[in-house]
Amino acid sequence: MSATGPERKPLSARSATTNEVTSGQQRVRVVVAERNPLVISALREMLECDGRFELLGAVQSGKQLLELAVNTKFDVAVIGWRLADMDGADVLAEVQSRKLDMRITVFSNDHDIGILKQCVRLGAQGYCFQFDDPHIIFETILAVAYGRICIPYIDINKVNDTPLAQLTVRERELLAVLSDGWTNLQIATRTGISENTVKYHLKNLYDKLDVRNRAMAVALYSSEKRRTPRLPVG
């Protein structure tokens, strides 16, 4: 999927054109959620120097942002991937669960393509990096405010790929019983295979998930299961 929205052209963060708002044009109302005070300060200065935006507030936790969404009218929330109490995926999942009318741009300092895929799956409308030029950040926020989706290039056919997507049905079943607390002996007894065979399957499972042990595999499984959006019934 290529980024949609206005063409991204070089634009100075302090250019005269950005400090002027067309007569009658309403500024885009923005709130920022980011745990790092230095990042908040930089975003505040950038947005306040650009006449197209109005910064309504900045918070450091997902809980504060969700509360703000209920009590404050704004156009776009710019959120960091790691907040004080939760990460961006948790926030996006909560927005879906609570059916909040909130348009979100994720402002990430991590170049992990897996995070981008996760944000797309969970409904983020915009995505940019903290090391992007200011004009890219501005244009992403504007595109999202105007009802578009603006993200870096990503192969749409692979957007639903997760670490669990590559597992076989049997491996998924194995991961599920691990999360239920089954020991190797219990798995062997109930499936009719030897403990050594169970250990062999677990090693393959860990290799596919790129984890080192049972605890990490279960944590990954629980995280993916919790964040998978639930489809409405009926």
UniProtKB/TrEMBL annotation:
Compositionally skewed regions (Basic and acidic residues) per UniProt: 1-10
Protein's UniProt keywords contain Cell division: no
InterPro entries: CheY-like_superfamily (IPR011006), NreC/VraR/RcsB-like_REC (IPR058245), Sig_transdc_resp-reg_C-effctor (IPR016032), Sig_transdc_resp-reg_receiver (IPR001789), Tscrpt_reg_LuxR_C (IPR000792), WalR-like (IPR039420), WH-like_DNA-bd_sf (IPR036388)
Protein name as catalogued: LuxR family two component transcriptional regulator
Annotated ranges, domain Response regulatory: 29-145
Gene3D superfamilies named in the record: 3.40.50.2300, Winged helix-like DNA-binding domain superfamily/Winged helix DNA-binding domain
Entry-linked Pfam families: GerE (PF00196), Response_reg (PF00072)
Domain of life assignment: Bacteria
Domain HTH luxR-type: from-to ranges: 160-225
Residues covered by region (Disordered): 1-21
GO BP annotation list: phosphorelay signal transduction system; regulation of DNA-templated transcription
GO MF annotation terms: DNA binding
Naturally occurring in which organism (per UniProt): Rhizobium loti
PROSITE patterns to which the protein is assigned, alphabetical: HTH_LUXR_1, HTH_LUXR_2, RESPONSE_REGULATORY
CDD domains for the chain: LuxR_C_like, REC_NarL-like
Keywords of the record: DNA-binding, Phosphoprotein, Transcription, Transcription regulation
